[in-house]
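RECORD TYPE: protein structure
NAME: Hsp20 family protein
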Amino acid sequence: MSSKENKEIRRRSMFDQLFDIHPNRSLLDTMDQFFTDAFGAGGGLPVSRQDGKSHYTIEVALPGVSKEEIDLELMDDTLRITVDRQESVINDTAKTMSENKSYLERTIRLPENLVLREMKARYDNGVLKVRFPKRRGKKVDIE
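PREDICTED:
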């Protein structure tokens, strides 16, 4: 077997993905996405990103969370998503009450080509969708 055939058969390691850089994404964004995919979202907020032709969309699965418990903060090129939950559980049999508190946070660096002031957010059936339109370049006619 030649070395060329051997390279084609070789399984791709997770680090090979690091060098499959998307042309519209900075190296830091690519590394952030790689480590998020490989090791899971830090803080327990799994994030999915779709880089479409005209929009950039972020989806976060938040089952059991109410809209009022979610906070979005946009600062410069960073989106911060926080979930602050407080839940009271009453046990009538034992005549006790317990309170559970949880706080989750995820900070996402956004690509430079987005129109941030036109951000739209929607929460439906446990999924938060944050959508940004992309800036359009000027179309140039060819003579």
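COMMENT: The mean pLDDT is 78.
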